[in-house]
Amino acid sequence: MGTLVGHVAPGFAFLVIGFWHLLNHIKLHVQNPKTYHSLPWFPSTKIRYIELYCIMLGSSMSIAMELFIGPNRHQPFDTDGTIPSNHLHNFEHSFISMTFLVYAGFAILLDKFVPKARYELTQLLAGIAFGQQLLLFHLHSADHMGVEGQYHMLLQILILISFITTLMGISYQKSFIVSFIRSISIFFQGLWLMVMGFMLWTKSLIPKGCLLNLEEGHHVVRCHGEEALERAKSLVNIQFSWYLIWVTIFVVSFYLAMYKIYEDKVEYQTITRYDQELVHEDIEAQRKLEEYQNIVLKEKSFSPINMERQKVLKGVISFTVGYFLL
Predict the structure, then answer these.
(1) Total count of domains within the chain
(2) How far apart are CA 316 and CA 301, in angstroms?
(3) Range of the domain at 159
(4) C-alpha closest to that of 24 among 147, 133, 145, 176
(5) Which residue among 269, 298, 314 closes a domain?
(6) Radius of gyration (C-alpha) of the chain in whole angstroms
(7) 178, 250, 262, 284: which has the fewest C-beta neighbours closer than 10 Å?
């Protein structure tokens, strides 16, 4: 990161993943409102792990760019083997990408080995990835006081929502609204990262009274005086509010459009392994309940007859014993 491309590229990736989740969660809920069950990721019909492969590819490219392609000498260390100050943010960004890479890799392994806790573990890994992202952005080595810091502070709110809703998804697997909010936060993360890239590294978009200044190997927005800085921060807040309104309008309109399309449409689709197990468990539980109810009903309906038979049997035995005794 630290450049226009460094924000726009990962931002576009988050935007696409968020939209992909938004699309699938809405479709799944509209078609199955009573049996809805959220998924941590969505398989594709042709390439099952296409979403996870894209995350792994994007994360690997981000790590390579931060540590080996971006630095002047194509490696982030100094001549004495230490990390120079201007490369600290490169390591921070690369660790974020590494965590998402770990999440995607283990998500594939968990799906292949099919352990009992695969859903919970996959959600936990995603939660750890968002937690790592939140931690490193909160303790970022970049400026926290300037205009860039204001953008990062608002970004942290979106990451926090993604983090909380991901962990909530472990217990509330059948809650559509939790998955819906999580998808929106991921989508908004991507959009806001792209906005940051353009607004912070495009000279014509720099707020009045501020300029791009080269510091420690990368450009930073600096403002002339406290008044210009406060004005720039206020513009960032207004900008975030403006995008929040439009994202809200978009996602609700998108939900209504999807509801209209799939409301009465019956679609036969492959049941994922998660859903397959849940359906099997529900059927098995229903079968056992019906068997138990049938047994109870039989016992209740035939209990007078059984008692009468027992009386007759006792009478026959008593008569036989008495006859032989005589």
Answers:
(1) 2
(2) 25
(3) 4-269
(4) 176
(5) 269
(6) 30
(7) 284
Specify the 3-state DSSP secondary structure of 170.
Answer: helix
Same domain, 301 and 158: no
Tell me: do 157 and 276 sit in the same domain.
Answer: no
Q: Token match 């807040």: residue?
A: 237
- Number of H-type helices and E-type strands within the chain: 8, 2
Query: Do 75 and 165 belong to one domain?
Result: yes
Are 189 and 295 members of one domain? no
pTM of the model: 0.80
Same domain, 200 and 243: yes
Q: Is residue 125 within 8 Å of 102, Cβ to Cβ?
A: yes
